Amino acid sequence: MTSPMRPSSAWLRGSGVAACHRPRLETSLLCAVLVAVAGVTPVSRAAAQSDTLGVPAIVVPMDTVRGLRPGDAIRVRVWREPDLTGDFEVDEMGVAVLPKIGPVKVGGMSPEALRAVLTKTYESYLVHTAVDVSLLRRVQVLGAVRNPGLYKTDGTMTLGDALALAGGVTPQGNAKGVQLTREGRALSGSLSMNDRLANLPLRSGDQIFVPQRNWVARNPGVLVSMISLAAGITTRIMLSHR
Predict the structure, then answer these.
(1) This model's pTM is above 0.85
(2) What string of DSSP letters covers the chain?
(3) What mean pLDDT, rounded, does the chain reach?
């Protein structure tokens, strides 16, 4: 199978690379520049992801990732009760310690189910109970971002919001190639900056990875200079053989 990085023989002849057999300094320089330019091709998104991740993607059903897991936290807001409001960590046993209630087994529970339990429980202490519950996923934001690290994300956030926690995508980053990864594997699906995290198969410990753009996109000035140099050398060779 012919490599996509190798220029065809017809192209080489048309570009003057066939003149490499002539012992001239200009021709030698032209050969080097043309071959370098010919060897620089944009990398497709699929290829870039494959090279970065190195393993096939896996499909994770949504119903296996909705519940709370160790390393997550729950954000509880109780109306007019600041002492009962806050972020509470979920330990390795799937338990969170809540004010007035104490340890609560929350592992595997959805926000809706947990809200119902807390509302029912707090009715013993409050006259008017209004409880809001949201999950905080502990995820890593890695790759071409300004401040890679571990962050807690709310399901109401978008993918763009999560990247903003890490300072945003760097100029070298490919915002259109963002991937969710787990244990070295990519989670399937095309991602958009407007995707809500609650709609993604995201759970605690996952990574949001931003790959770098391909060489051409990151070095447009170098490519232009190489093409200009090749054109100049080609012109000199053509003039010298008139």
Answers:
(1) no
(2) ---TTSPPHHHHHHHTGGGGGS--HHHHHHHHHHHHHHT--PPPHHHHHHHHH-S--B---GGGTSSB-TT-EEEEEETT-GGG-EEEE--TTSEEEETTTEEEE-BT--HHHHHHHHHHHHTTT-SS--EEEEEEEEEEEEESBSS-EEEEEETTSBHHHHHHHTT-B-TTB-GGG-EEEETTEEBPS---TT-BGGGS---TT-EEEEPBPPHHHH-HHHHHHHHHHHHHHHHHHHHHT-
(3) 74
